[in-house]
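Postdoc handover notes: sequence design on the structure in folder B. Input tokens:
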């Protein structure tokens, strides 16, 4: 019987890419050095200072987070309390980094922000993220550095209107101190 249980666990890990040990709501994250769009060392700005929405996107699935970003941007949350931050997962992308960095420049202009890059899974590993290949990972992190929300969106399972409303409502309540 023990062999069956162990085999089941091994199969689950193989199928879900290690998601059993992935980051969870309530986990505390710390800052880690990654890269900016120009490939200079950088860290996640305002971590522990503001409510953050982090979009950790495989470049091949980066557009999946746009509807969430657009909904959050439309709310015009106070910059003193809130920040949205995109981080491009370069390691899983099929495109060369120089092409991804060009696309990042356009997104930086669209969202009037800086987008960071993770060329070697530094952030993925430090924060315990699961399989991020072909995924857009949306995380909401409170001022206390605790994960308040995390979800992996994929092309066959993008965020729907109800999920976007849930994320926006959570950010609103965290900014209000609830």
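Designed sequence:
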């Amino acid at each position: 019987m023990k062999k069956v249980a162990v085999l089941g666990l091994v199969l689950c890990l193989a199928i879900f890419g290690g998601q059993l040990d992935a980051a969870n709501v309530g986990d505390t994250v710390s800052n880690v050095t990654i890269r900016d769009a120009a490939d200079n060392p950088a860290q996640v700005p305002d971590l522990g200072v503001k409510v953050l929405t982090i979009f950790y996107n495989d470049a091949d699935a980066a557009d999946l987070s746009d509807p969430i970003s657009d909904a959050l941007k439309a709310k015009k949350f106070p910059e003193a309390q809130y920040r949205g931050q995109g981080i491009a997962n370069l390691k899983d992308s099929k495109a060369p980094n120089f092409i991804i960095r060009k696309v990042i420049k356009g997104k930086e202009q669209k969202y009037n922000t800086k987008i960071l890059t993770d060329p070697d899974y530094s952030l993925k590993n430090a924060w315990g993220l699961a399989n991020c290949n072909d995924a857009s990972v949306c995380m909401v992190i409170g001022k206390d550095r605790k994960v308040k929300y995390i979800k992996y969106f994929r092309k066959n399972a993008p965020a729907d209107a109800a999920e976007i409303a849930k994320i926006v409502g959570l950010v609103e309540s965290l900014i209000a101190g609830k």
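Context for whoever picks this up: The chain has one domain: 23-175. Don't rerun without checking with the PI first.
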